[in-house]
Amino acid sequence: MKKQLYFIQFCLILFSFNTILAQTPKKIIIEHSDFADINQLETPDAALLTGNVRVNHDGAILTCNKAYYFQKENYIKAFGNVRIVQGDTLTMSSKYAEYNGENKQAFATGNVVLQSPEMSMVTDTLNFDRNSQEAYYTTYGTITNKGNTLRSKSGRYFVNQKKYQFLTAVTITTPENVIKSNHLDYYTNSGHSYLLGPSTIVGKDNKIYTENGFYDTKKDIARLQRNSTIRYNNLLVKGDSLFYNKKTGFASGVNNVKITDSINKTIIKGHYAEIYKFKDSMFVTKRAVAVSLVDKDSVYIHAKKLMVTGKEGNRIVRGFNNARFFKTDLSGKCDSIHSDQTKGLTQLIGKPILWNFDNQMTGDVIHLVGNNKTEKLDSLKVLNNAFIVSKDTVGTGFNQVKGQNLYGKFKDNALQEVDIVKNTEVIYYMRSEEQELIGINKSVGSKINLILDKNKIDTLTIFEKPEGEIYPEKDLPENARKLRGFIWRGDERIKSKDDIFPSEENELNDKIVKESKAKNAKEDVPMEVLKETLDYDKNNPKPKVQ
What we know:
Layout: H1 2-23, E1 29-32, E2 35-38, E3 46-57, E4 60-70, E5 75-86, E6 90-100, E7 105-115, E8 120-129, E9 134-137, E10 141-145, E11 148-152, E12 155-158, E13 163-166, E14 170-173, E15 177-181, E16 184-187, E17 192-203, E18 206-216, E19 221-224, E20 228-232, E21 235-239, E22 241-245, E23 250-261, E24 266-276, E25 281-294, E26 297-309, E27 316-327, E28 330-340, E29 345-349, E30 353-356, E31 359-362, E32 365-371, E33 376-391, E34 398-411, E35 414-431, E36 437-453, E37 456-463, E38 467-471, H2 503-521, H3 531-534, H4 536-539
Antiparallel strand pairs: 1-3, 2-3, 3-4, 4-5, 5-6, 6-7, 7-8, 8-9, 8-10, 9-12, 10-11, 11-14, 12-13, 13-16, 14-15, 15-17, 16-17, 17-18, 18-19, 18-20, 19-22, 20-21, 21-23, 22-23, 23-24, 24-25, 25-26, 26-27, 27-28, 28-29, 28-30, 29-32, 30-31, 31-33, 32-33, 33-34, 34-35, 35-36, 36-37, 36-38
């Protein structure tokens, strides 16, 4: 038992002794100088070394023209062509330097140049801590790194991470962009930049603003997280989270995405978007809406998925699945919508329904034709199973006209004249100027013409051998007052821009907006360093020298 205790005590003593040895600073070793002298009067306790001075300390080599070596302090002052070389990774040159062997601190001034395989930095004064492998300056510095130039008033370099950190104004000039920020981390091996606080990335064809983001200066890729915008050509893209690849022209956004097209007078919103710059197209979903300015009025188009394609003046908007639209004088919904700016043609496809003021129109397909010069609605086509319904102005009945096709003309965006052709039928409540009911006209014909005034039927004309009669109200039973296929869908009418969104998408929107506000209320912290940054050297090994 005693032998075991003695053995344990011996191990502890040996461990403590080794720890003390490890913590004991190593002495600076003078490897060479052409001349050496000691003058206690001029420089007490110092050795003067001149000519091709070379000293070594714990793996670092210092060379210079002249040096004072303070042996007791384990300290050296170096003059003229000073170079401190640390392995094959770091070299520091200057006119003057001091090095403390006790704490491995170096100080350099006068045309200081710090070099590594990835970069070169020039400043007036530099401090270098070999223990933490950090160098810092406060006297303006210029860093060149694989085609990029960084300028700042102060900065800190982390040798092991190959990272510069700037907490004051810094500018990075790359072959493609100029990056400005007051808080930036820059990795010299990968060219990755992490920005915090108001920052801009400006290129020939684009301008990026962010308050928390990442930019790959080699690949021209941005990932942006807070109060961010991307501007290029005529587009301004905003969103809680944005991605942009300048080389491919691809951008995407997540949550509260807003795309403003100043040339085409269009705003597109949603909670997920993809933009293809070189294809002049975009895709938006999750409460997607396209807002266009037409005749000093806004047209809102919504669908589960929206696609916008084409250059200026040739835009096509496509909406798929539960498409809806609203304008103050016109609204409707259908399975899908196709709007061609060049032709001025909007097609409602798949169970379409249209409301123009109090008039409800249905058919297999509905076409709206606009006048590109006046930016007003010109005409309307309802193809196959055309049906137009409006409430009687006074009573509870419904005016109804049906036929194979319907052709309408607009004036000031209101229906002025309508022609219904082939197998036409009508039920019309005829009233006097005093709005007294004259009778109910129930007739058939090959064509019916309607003239509307103030969005109400003013005159009705039946062509080519009309058949029917005008019934007194008491002589026409209730079940005979509706044409086959009649369905009044007034409760579905879209009366505001908010009505175009289904309830489930409104719930999603409320959730995202709430989460976004909560996130913005929190104190901003730097973006977490990406795995591709941390693993850059591992994933991009340098070729071996043969």
